[in-house]
User: Fold this.
Amino acid sequence: MSRQKQKRFWRRWLTRWLIARLQMKSLEIRTYVLQALGKVGDESALPVILDAAKDSDSTMRRYAVPALADMGGEQATEALMAALDDPESDIRAAAVMALGEIRAERADDALMPLLGDEDLSVRVQTVIALGNLGSKQALPRLNQMMTTESNEWVCRYISQAIREIEGGCSS
Assistant:
């Protein structure tokens, strides 16, 4: 068996073993399993992670977000964009951060409304993500926010994002 086939075999075996552990009652174990599934990165785990992203338990949704970012791909990106509408602000913030980190194309339009989110962490993560994405369409809004934002730290993040978008600084 070639080395590549061996790696694929063990990755698939580990994924099946981890998926079976999602049936355990312990929420803590299930969240660790979600993290591991994302890190292992086997595509057969994606349906399970997508289900967790829609779970009624916010903790499961919260842990599904970084697992989706680890998995990458179109379906994961779509699920991350859907998480931008989650009622829990920490899940919205995590989804924003994930989209910025994976530099998801097409995320600009979905992120722009979150610059006005009621939650400070969501707004800050959105500013950072738009900077990471190099979103030219965000520049007018970010410049406007610089004149109206009263929080010094938010202004620093806005300034950094503007520099990144304009090409003057890299992260």
About this structure: The chain has ten helices and no strands. The first helix runs from residue 3 to 21. The mean pLDDT is 94. The CA atoms of residues 111 and 159 lie 18 Å apart.
